[in-house]
Design goal:
The chain is of the alpha/beta class. The chain is built from five helices and ten strands; from the N terminus they run E-H-E-E-E-E-H-E-H-E-E-E-E-H-H.
């Protein structure tokens, strides 16, 4: 750790919007465990600038602590040497999911042993409340910095000079867009109509099913013409006899053995009369 005589009384911190966004996105990806990484930038006079961040892969994560491992440092330096060869590590960041912005004893130990340079800082972000803050050396103490400057890399860009048109719905004109908005404004009405249609269709299906069941299981009676003398069915009877309720129908013969409710009677077997004589019935 650096000697106390090398501590500074105060300094300004500037962080780019891109670096702050990268930190927030990394922290929001883990809502229950802490994540960590390093801050990449430069030091000029009394100003520490943060231009980017490198996530700490393979760190030991816990609900209330995080630790840089050897694999984490190897990953960090590999990314730094390839993407930011001229920059420096000006601090570190970690998340506090759900318990605010502060430096715990474990956090202070990491900062004092791995980020002890006078202008190295510790950025803390709570993804649950979106609270964030930064800590640094103020003399011989680690304190929360009272002022942080957020720098927009696109600052100074004039309005209307980007050359980008207004976003439009692809494959549709303004009328189509208005129609889509109008249809989407009342989803409850569409759900009500769909529910009513399903109900009507269900009742129709039940009625049709009931009709076929009744037709199949309900007993059906067929009227057939019979001979009133013998009680035998007339196979060659004219069709009009099938539509009558008497005069040759079984309903007109009280002694018909085929009529429901009557006892079975023996069929008559008349003897043909001799030629020229009147036969007796």
């Amino acid at each position: 750790m650096k000697a106390n005589s090398e501590r500074v009384k105060g300094f300004d911190l500037r962080i780019s919007c891109d670096a702050a966004r990268q930190i927030r996105q990394h922290a929001r990806a883990s809502s229950k465990a802490e994540v960590c990484g390093v801050l990449i930038g430069s030091e000029e006079g009394s100003v520490t600038s943060v231009q980017a961040s490198i996530p700490g892969a393979n760190a030991v994560q816990g609900g209330s602590h995080v630790t840089f491992t050897q694999d984490t440092w190897e990953h960090i330096y590999r990314i730094k040497d390839s993407d930011y060869p001229e920059a420096r590590i000006v601090g570190w960041y970690h998340s506090h999911p759900g318990f605010g912005v502060f430096l715990s004893d474990h956090d202070a130990f990491i900062h004092k042993n791995f980020f002890s340079a006078p202008r190295q800082v510790a950025w803390v972000y709570d993804p649950h409340s979106d609270e964030e803050g930064c800590f640094g050396w103020m003399g011989t103490k680690l304190e929360r910095l009272p002022r942080i400057v957020l720098v927009d890399a696109k600052g100074g860009e004039g309005a209307g000079e980007t050359g980008k048109p207004e976003p439009l719905l692809l494959g549709s004109d303004d009328s189509d867009a208005d129609a889509k908005i109008e249809l989407g404004s009342s989803p409850s009405e569409a759900r009500a109509m769909l529910s009513a249609g399903i109900t009507v269709l269900s009742y129709l299906c039940i009625m049709v099913l009931g009709f076929f069941l009744c037709w199949y299981f309900y007993p059906r009676y067929v009227l057939v013409p019979v001979d009133p003398r013998t009680g035998q069915i007339l196979l060659n009877a004219p069709p009009e006899l099938y539509n009558e309720g008497s005069n040759g129908m079984d309903g007109g013969n009280p002694n018909n053995p085929n009529k429901p409710g009557n006892p079975a009677l023996p069929l008559a077997n008349p003897t043909p009369a001799p030629h020229g004589l009147k036969g007796k019935p």
